[in-house]
Amino acid sequence: MTLPPRVTDRAFARLAEIAESMGGAQALRVAVEGGGCSGFQYDIKLDAPAPDDLVLEKDGQKVLVDSVSLPFLANAVIDFSEELIGARFVIENPNASSSCGCGTSFSI
Questions:
Q1: Domain that holds residue 38
Q2: Measured on CA atoms in the order 44, 8, 90, 100, is the torsion positive or negative?
Q3: Does residue 61 sit within a domain?
Q4: Contacts of 57 (CB under 8 A, 6+ apart)
Q5: pLDDT tens digit string along 94-108?
Q6: Residues 6+ apart with CB under 8 A from 17
Q7: 30 touches 102 (CB < 8 A)
Q8: 69 neighbors 62 (Cβ within 8 angstroms)
Q9: Number of other residues whose CB lies within 10 A of the CB of residue 89
Q10: For 71-101, what is each residue's pLDDT tens digit?
């Protein structure tokens, strides 16, 4: 059974911090597009909802996934990672057969 992506509490909490610093709610768009060193790459940005988006929401914070990207992100986990080298939203994608070292590019 194909499940939609899941967003961790840590990712929603970081999105709430971003919204607070920007003076209002911001939706995080997670999309997949062709490119990168492995064939596909993630495009993660603040954006407004579109009519065909899957909206994952918690406490007023929204993560958006468009209908084209949804099959590539089935069963994936959208998280936020904070390490010494930096902080970023990360995708744990069980559909990816391989990925590049930076984690933003993958193949299926």
A1: 6-107
A2: negative
A3: yes
A4: 63
A5: 887 655 555 555 456
A6: none
A7: no
A8: no
A9: 20
A10: 999 999 999 999 888 889 989 988 876 555 5
